[in-house]
Amino acid sequence: MKPFFFQFAAILLLLLNTIMMIETQAAYVKPQRVTCYKRYRKCYLKYITCPSECPEIRPKDPYAKECFLDCYSPKCEAVCRKRRPNCDGPGAACYDPRFIGGDGIVFYFHGKKDEHFSLISDVNLQINARFIGLRPAGRTRDFTWIQALGLIFGFHNFTLEATKAENWDQEADHLKFTYDGMSFNVPIGYSSAWNSPDENLELERTSGTNSVRVTIQEIVEISANVVPVTEKDDAIHGYQIPKNDSFAHLEVQFRFFGLSPNVEGILGRTYQPSFKNPAKPGVDMAVVGGDDKYKTSSLLSTDCNSCVFTPGKMFAERDLALMDYGSLDCTGRGIDGGKGIVCKK
Ligand SMILES: *[C@@H]1O[C@H](CO)[C@@H](O)[C@H](O)[C@H]1NC(C)=O
Ligand SMILES: *[C@@H]1O[C@H](CO)[C@@H](O)[C@H](O)[C@H]1NC(C)=O
Description:
Elements (H helix, E strand, L loop, with lengths): L1 H26 L5 E2 L13 E2 L16 E4 L8 E4 L10 E3 L3 E3 L5 E3 L7 E7 L2 E10 L8 E11 L2 E7 L12 E5 L2 E3 L8 E3 L5 E5 L5 E6 L3 E8 L3 H7 L11 E8 L34 H4 E2 L21 H9 L19
Antiparallel strand pairs: 1-2, 3-4, 5-6, 5-18, 6-7, 8-9, 8-19, 9-10, 10-11, 11-12, 12-13, 14-15, 15-16, 16-17, 17-18
This protein binds 2-acetamido-2-deoxy-beta-D-glucopyranose (NAG) (2 copies).
One 2-acetamido-2-deoxy-beta-D-glucopyranose binds next to loops.
């Protein structure tokens, strides 16, 4: 009896030891190094070691933060950031659309359901949003959400849509994509990726289903989730969502690289160096208008009254814009994710 017990204990100890060893091994990841290959940037060919809290550029764990070096930021340091959109960070468009401008100010733009509005209109980039929504009896305006994004850059176009879901199922994917007018599939699964044939655009899933990151090198990075309007939201806000539609929509966060000083659009203008936000900081529910200025005739048209997009221009005015970034300090904003983001005052 006794020898058996000791044997058992010894085996158990050995097992525990092995498990612990494996665990310590897994916990330590040698921090990777990052650099920028673009000339004239502060970080050009400087190798920066990632912080130990986020040692990897592409962590295998979907919930881990990633290491990121913003080649445009005036400070050349690697920072940690979430892979999914941060609805409380600059460049966010979430909920019934609540925006956070490049200036960090929160504002609402309601628009109208089943219409399209320009979020960004710059010489080399246009981003439109399709709004879906409903208007319960007796209300004076529509409740709206962003259901799709349409991008036009150079001579290319790209769309990202949340597909309709009667009943929400997180395990099912609700994303649909097109590039240059052709739809394409990205296999379900974390870090599954797709590149456009000309390598202009890269898309990566940041969770098994319903989350992606879209990158157009040197121009924009978009993190997006598809989410439903939950019963809780419905109860709080009184949307009166019908039983047969979950109003699947997008939560988005944009990061822009090299916007021009004349950038327009609901969100775009908040990145103008001289922009004075009509929404005052700290004011609850600051609603910003401009339907007439930003309405486009479709998801991929650039015909709004304030639109400034010019087809074919890939990098117009970039270096001009760069001078602005160089003189600006974006640190100390206290918003998570704010550090790696190009911001202007
Ligand atoms: C999108 O790009 C394709 C390929 O260049 C083009 O044929 C199509 O007309 C574009 N779509 C729109 C709406 O501009
Ligand atoms: C949902 O139900 C409403 C009536 O309550 C109907 O008008 C609408 O067409 C239905 N939508 C779908 C997607 O079945």
